[in-house]
Amino acid sequence: MPMNVKCPYCQALAIPGLRTRDYNQQITTDSFDYFRCAVCDYWFLHPIPDDLGKYYPNSYYAIPSSVARLRQSAERQRYQIETIQKFARGGRLLDIGPGNGAFAYLARQSGFEVQTLEMDGDCCRYLRDVIGVGAIQTDDPAFVLPQLPLQQVITLWHVVEHLRDPWLCLQRAAERLAPGGILLVATPNPQALQFRVFRSRWVHLDAPRHVSLIPAPLLARALTSYGLRPVLVNSNDPGGRALNVYGWRASLVNLSPRRLARAAAWRLGLPLGRLASIAETHGFPGSTYTAIFRNVDG
Question: Which of 42, 147, 188, 207 is the most exposed, having the fewest neighbouring CB atoms within 10 Å of its CB?
């Protein structure tokens, strides 16, 4: 591992954390190094590969094959729009990294004026032509954000961990919130019980696509410094509970070297994941968290 690596957030000297591989997609056999800041507890990949795009297979985006499939996918994510509606009932909504657009579909159906920022061209076409929302193709949302009008809602559903510079994106997002507007961030939790158990084989580490893991206290500290106020931190919504179970199953698979063993690990992981998820919803840190912050300016 390289030495004298500084934390991208606070510039303190970082500690070598772990070395891992692309266990999830198995696109490469290269090794990747993660560091942890001893001061702010931020986990980050160093160095970040020059061309991250090549590590995203076409199957990563899973565009629905029909409108009926889109609606089915959206129904599984209905808790997301219901979460937003507790804090905002309408207006401009910017979804960064919408993927197949299930949440954008729900937001549009709920009366929001939806714009999206997405790096995949096929997803952008699907968002425009099928879902009927705005879609700007970009892999640098921080560059595009200052060009957009103020938003009542900005969402990053499991996106911030993919960004080369999440801090600049979060700052720019905070600057584009209208007074009283909300910013939602859902992301893997580096304080998770699963991370302690599985370490380099943890499925939510997802090297090299996840270039950073931000603990919830650090996210709150950063966004508070940008003028926002935390109004929700939750790891026990339906999505979080599902990702807890999936995390145990898929991480067990990552521990298994052979195909038959991997199939057995996936089956074994279901009861184990359900049992462990009970603990994760009653005191132990879950595999992901969702945090909402409000712009208190004005």
Answer: 147
